[in-house]
Each structure stands twice: as C-alpha cells, then as structure tokens.
Amino acid sequence: MSVVSLHEPSHRETLWELEAAFARGDTVSVFGECTVEYDGRAASSLGPGARLLVLKPDGTALVHTDEGRTPVNWQPPGSEHRAAVRDGRLRVRSTRTNPSETLNVRFSAVDHLAAYAVTGGRSVDVVGSEADLKARILEEPSLVADGFEPQATERETDAGPVDVFGVDADGHPVVVELKRRRVGPDAVGQLARYVSAVEREEPDGTPVGGVLVAPSVTDRAAELLAEEGLDHVAVDRLVAETDGTELEETDVVGDDDTVG
Amino acid sequence: MSVVSLHEPSHRETLWELEAAFARGDTVSVFGECTVEYDGRAASSLGPGARLLVLKPDGTALVHTDEGRTPVNWQPPGSEHRAAVRDGRLRVRSTRTNPSETLNVRFSAVDHLAAYAVTGGRSVDVVGSEADLKARILEEPSLVADGFEPQATERETDAGPVDVFGVDADGHPVVVELKRRRVGPDAVGQLARYVSAVEREEPDGTPVGGVLVAPSVTDRAAELLAEEGLDHVAVDRLVAETDGTELEETDVVGDDDTVG
DNA sequence: GCCTAGGTCCCGTCA
DNA sequence: TGACGGGGCCTAGGC
C-alpha cells in the first residue's frame, strides 16, 4: 500500500493533498499547531496547541491531544470534511446535519501529513458480552432459579424490552435483567421498571418476580434490591470461565528485540 | 516542532523509532498491515487489514479502521506500550492492570510512522452541559414550578444523589432530575428511584414531588411519568438559547481556496 | 481504590 | 427515522 506523506508542508500543499486524499478515500493523519472550535449539541473552544487530527473517508473527524482515549473534539461518521486556506491559516471544517454540528480546526502550521488507504476487516467478535450471558442462561435456566423456565427474550413491556422473561416453579412470571459486569443502582431501577410494567399487565395480585443476573452488585444496589423485593444471582463473566491464556502463550519469556 | 517520519521502514527501523518516540514522550501514528488481539474485560480478534495505530505518551493506544468514531480496538490511558520484533513481524503490545488487559497489534508491514510532540491545551470548556442547566434552574427556580425553592444540589439519598432538591409552594419536598437532552424511560426510572428514597425518609404520608427537567421526553417516558405521578418541565437547551452563530460568522460566503 | 452519574457519549437493532 | 439499551463504554467528582 502506498502512503503520501508531507513534511512541514505549506498550507497550499496541505490543501492540495487533503483534496487528493478525500478523493481517494484515504484516511489522513495531520500533526500541527491548531485551535479547535465546536458548535452543535454543545459548544466548545480549544486554544492553540500541537495536536493530531485524523480524518476518515466515512466523515469521522478526531482531534487528539497527548492524553486520553477520548478525542478532545470530534465529529461523528457521516460528516463532510472540507479544507480551505483563510487568513493565512489552514482550516479543516467538518459539518453534519441532524443534529446540525460544526467542527472547525484551524492550523497555524502543519508539521506533518500522511494519507493512507485504510482497508480490511472493521468489526471484531467480542466475547464476553451480555448476549453471551443470555445464551448461558437459556442453556442452563436453573442458574436463575430452581425450576425457572424461560419463555421469551426481549419481551416488550410498557417500560421497554425485558432481557429474559419466564415463569418460576410456581408458574408465576419472572423478569430477568442481565448485566455483564458489576452493577449499581441504575440496573436495579431498570429491573424495577420492568417488574412494575409486568405487574400492571397481570391480573391484580399476581406476584411478579425480578432477578438481576450480574457478577456482583454494589452495596447500595443490594439495599435497593432488598427494598424492592428483587433478587440477585451472581454469575461470573463468561470470559473468565474460558481458559483465557491464548494471548499469553504467544509471549514467551525472555523477549529479544524488545523496547519500551 | 519537529516530526520524525519513516516511509515504509523495516521492522528494525520502526522498533528503533518507537523506542525513541516513547523516550521523548511523543505521540505516534503508524499506518500498516496488521492483526489485532485483545484480552481483558472481554476478548476479541481482528484479522489482517490496513489500519491506523495511535500511541500516546500517557499509555493510550488506539487502533482505527477507515470507519467509525470508536476505535476498533484500544487500550485506555495508564497502559504500557512495548514493541518487539517476533517471527518476522513487528509487535506492539500495550498492557495494563486492574483490570488486567492486553492489546496486541502485529504488523506484517509498516507503511508509515510519524512521531510528534503533541502539547498544549487538553481540556475544553463545553457549554450546554447539565451543569449549565442546573445553574439556570438555580437562577430561576420558578422554571421548575411556581414557588419552588431549591434547598440543595447533589443531595444524597439511599438511591443516589439528587440533582436539585427543594420544597414547593406548600412546603412539600420536591426532587428535580436534570437532563440536557431528550430522555427516555431510564431517566424516569432514575427520578422515580430518588422520589421513592426521599419518601422512605419522610414521615408517613408526606407527599414528595418529582420533576424531570429536560428539553423533551419520549412517548414511553411520558407514560411512565404519568403512571408514577411525576412531572415533566420542558426547558430548552442552553446552547440553543444563545445566539449560536459565532462559528458561522467566521465563514464568509464565497470561499476561495476551498476543497472537499 | 470504589461508587455514582454524565456524555457533543457511540453504536447496533428493531419497530 | 426515532427509540431504546449495551458498552472492553470513558471520564469526572466524591469519599
């Protein structure tokens, strides 16, 4: 694959290469001194500094500082990138509609630009998601409660879709909410909402059970569960149950040629 | 500022330059053909493809494809980057503890590398946050209800902190939940949790009001509010109330030197 | 360190 | 298209 890279280009050179890169569908990285302004769902302004700007062919724009996983400013996919030279500065503007948002990056100097055709697989199979937990529960419903029988997943209620819905050993409805990680009060509120919604559907007086399936719960969540008469079932994360040593095996001790 | 850039470097050259960049505290962008493996809170594997790898001096690692604002794989700040040549491939590994996580990027070929000292302001003042909405409410409490008197913000309850707590014209407690954007059932659940918690604290029978302050609510959220006896007050987002045309004014019609 | 909730959350999925 | 909830969410603020 070929890369186009410019070292300390003039604004005109940068402009030209950005145009070419957009036309090719390349992904572009730009290092330089810039200010950033954003206006849309919120608004922000960022003073001068040396930063990394990444522009993707799908309309994504990312402004990164030297810290943090989250870009300091950005524009989501679907935006439109345009570049121009104004007032002696290179301006890269990315706009989108619905909601209407504008990102404005103004470079006083561009120190480096690289354009490259990024291709290949984009999605990863993530193991250990809530979907995996659901499969595990459906495979072994007794994990939820002895005699529990699942009847539906994503069952709709007035309060939203229930992860797993079924009946207990007595035939009473049970709402199951699944979480892949330790949960706090919000998850209890979610489960309580679903239970209330099902109770409203049922004939008066029918008891409706609620079970929160998660690796663990915070103290406050436990209190709220007790107050609401709901249950918690601890189920370890699936990824922990597998022999997760594959990555390690590739890393033999005694590395040569190692830095960092 | 100076940039070091390598065009189609050998693995040894890449290794050397990565070591130097890490030592200098530079931010690095690498374009090349790679596979990615991740193991930690979840696990994933990404087949061969041309991608962008960004390495920051704070330990952040980002693997980007040509689509999406979210990196296809990453490592959060605080991780440790190491590079090595193994089996004819350049391996960049980023690890962290608590939780224990490993990101493994293996390059069959590096097409471009650039290292640069990213510096300057990192944080932006975002206007239009929930904090701004709170200030607006405290400034003009009648927006919540005629005669509403705020008494505390972030008041603690058994169910978590209440955004704004006060009393209505009759002296009865009122719980206010603020949202900067249109809300769904989850926000209603949150408000209901807080109201229930305050009711538990109060002498039996004391009515406790609940008000959701948000630009708008979904139909389902409105139903749930009604069922819970809670109120909604529509307050437009603050950013919309300002003359949000600053960015536009800088963009005079009839751009010269515009591409894209 | 954990807990709690916000976020320009992003993102997929489904009605 | 909007709505709804998951996420390796990330991040800030308390305790």
TrEMBL record, chains A, B:
Q: Which UniProt keywords apply?
A: Cytoplasm, DNA-binding, Endonuclease, Hydrolase, Nuclease
Superkingdom of this entry's organism?
A: Archaea
Primary localization: cytoplasm
Q: Where does this polypeptide localize?
A: Cytoplasm
Protein family according to the UniProt entry = Belongs to the NucS endonuclease family.
Task: Provide the function of this protein.
Answer: Cleaves both 3' and 5' ssDNA extremities of branched DNA structures.
Q: Tell me which NCBIfam families the record gives.
A: PRK04247.1
Question: What is the name of the protein in this document?
Answer: Endonuclease NucS
Q: Which organism is it from?
A: Halorarum halophilum
